[in-house]
Amino acid sequence: MAVSEQTNSSCCAQPATKPSNRLSQLSAVGRRLKTPWTVVLVIPASVALFDPAQVVPVVQFALKAFGGTLPYIAFAVLLIAWLKAAGAEASIGRAFQGRETQAIFLAAMFGGLAPFCSCEVIPFIAGLLAVGAPLPAIMAFWLSSPLIDPPTLLITAASLGWPFAIGKAIFAVGLGLFGGFAVKLLMSGGTFKNPVKTITVTGCGCGPSPFTGKPRWRFWEENTRRQTFGRQLTANALFLAKWLALAYMLEALLVTYVPADLIARVVGGEGVLPIVIAALVGMPAYLNSYVAPPLLAGLTEQGMSAGAAMSFMIAGAVSSIPAMAAVWSLVKPGVFATYLALGVSGAVMSGILFQLVI
After folding, report:
1. Rounded-to-integer distance, Cα 49 and Cα 341, Å
2. Higher-pLDDT residue of 309, 113
3. Residue 123: which domain range?
4. Relative to the CA of 325, which of 45, 91, 289, 337 has its CA 20 to 30 Å away?
5. Whole-angstrom Cα distance, residue 11 to residue 17?
6. If DSSP codes are grouped into helix, strand and coil, which group holds residue 196?
7. Lowest-confidence range among 28-32, 77-81, 274-278, 343-347?
8. Count of the separate structural domains present in the chain
C-alpha cells in the first residue's frame, strides 16, 4: 500500500514514470517536426548532401518565386481577415433561400467567395440541410467552394497568370451550376429521395455562426472584431507562408530534376487524353490550393498542356480531404459518389474548354 501511495503521489516523480514522460516528449517533438517547415529545410539539406552543385540554384529559385508572390499574399491575407472580422459568413446563407433555380445560381457564385475554414463548411452545410435547403443548391456550393476563394485566386494568378486564375474562377462557378442542375434533374426522376444522414448542427470554434448576425463591414469600430481581424491576419499569414514556401521548394526540385520530355509525353500535347489523365491523376494526388499552383507552373514549363493543368487542379480540389469529409459526413453514399463523379467529369470538361480557348 505504501508503494502504491508513493507512486500515485503528485509531488514525487518516480523512476517508473520516466519512460512514459520520455515517450510523451518524443511524441511532442515528432508533432512539431511534422510541419511543412521541416520539409522546407530538409529539401536544400538533401540537395546539398547528394548534389552540392545544385543547392544554390534550387534555393535561389524558391526564394525568387516566393518573393514574387509576396504582394499577392499580403493582399489575400488582408482580404480574408477583413471578411472574417466583418462576419461575412452571415450573408452566405441567404443564397440558399427562395426558388430552387435561383438558389443554385447564387450558391455556385457564393461558393467562390465564402471565407470558411475547412471545419466551418461542415456545420454550415449541416445547418442548411437541417432547415430543408434544397440539395441541388447545396451540391452547387459544395462543388464550387473548394475550387476558388480570394486567397486561392491571387496565389493562382501569381503562379500561373491571370488568364488561368480567372478561367479557374469561371469554371468553379460553372462546375457548381453543372452539379446543381444535374442533381436537380436526378431528383426530378426520383433519385435521392432521402439523401441526408442523421445530422446535428454544431459549431467548430472557428468563428461566428453563419446563421446569426449581420455583417459589419466597418469592423474596426468594435473591439471584438478588431481582435478577430488581428488573429485572422496572423494565422493566415503564417498558413500561406508555410505552404507556399513548401510549394516553391517542391517546384524548384521539379524544374531541376524532372525531365521536361517526360512531362510532355504524359500530359503534354493538345488532345483530350492528357486532360483525362491529368484529372484521374489529380484526384488521388491532391495538393491543397496553395501548393498546387506553383507546382503546376513548374509542370507547364516542362511541357504540361494548359488544359491538363486546369483539369488536374480542379479534380484535385474536389478531392480535398475537407471537401470530401464534408460530403461523406452529412449525406448518404449515393450522393457522395455523385459528388465525385460530377467533380471528375467537370474537371475534364473544364480542361477541354480551357484548352480550346487558350
Report:
1. 44
2. 309
3. 42-48+58-357
4. 91
5. 13
6. strand
7. 28-32
8. 1
Distance in angstroms between the alpha carbons of the first and the last residue of the chain:
80
C-alpha cell at 290: 496553395
Quick check: pTM over 0.70? no
CA distance 181 to 168: 20
Q: What does the block give as the cell for 11?
A: 509531488
In one letter, which amino acid is 244?
L
The total number of residues shown for the chain amounts to: 358
CA 247 to chain centre: 14
Give phi and psi for 196, each to the nearest 5: -100, 135
Any domain includes 203: yes
pLDDT digits (tens, 9 = 90+) for 77-119: 888 788 788 877 666 666 676 678 888 988 888 876 665 555 5
> What single-letter DSSP state applies at residue 270?
S
Residue 80 lies in a domain: yes
Alpha helices in the chain (DSSP H): 2-8, 18-33, 36-50, 55-86, 100-111, 118-130, 135-144, 150-160, 162-188, 223-257, 260-267, 272-282, 292-301, 306-318, 321-330, 333-357
Q: Is residue 228 included in any domain, yes or no?
A: yes
- Whose CA is closest to 107, among 165, 166, 173, 167? 173
Q: Which three cell numbers stand for residue 8?
A: 500515485
DSSP 252: H
Which of 174, 170, 155 has its CA nearest to residue 296? 155
**CA separation for the pair 294, 246 (Å, rounded):** 10
From 16, 39, 11, 70, select the one nearest 250 (Cα to Cα): 39
